[in-house]
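FIELD: query
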Amino acid sequence: LNGLVVEQSSDASRAAVFKVRRTGGQNSTRSTLECVGQGAYISVHPHSKRMGCFSTSPVELDYIRLDGQTWWDAAKGAFRDPTSGRFLCAEAPQFGGHVVATGTEASG
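FIELD: result
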């Protein structure tokens, strides 16, 4: 699968849509992100650590709530790759703005 790489952009025409599914019940921190219209799921590329629509089957990510949040809030949480324990973060624009799983903390 030649997946699409996720990157941060201020261009709304480049927006992607993901279907979020919580796995393991209502209190679980595990979720999958389906890349709508791509027939793929978000996963971490094993070499580049970039996030993209690389997997044809669901891949679980941890969603960590920050600042005592009890409800889903995209501004108050962070995704983490459960395999490496690394958080998703965006590279600086001069480096392409790709979303990578290399963060050591949940600050993004």
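FIELD: remark
The chain has no helices and eight strands.
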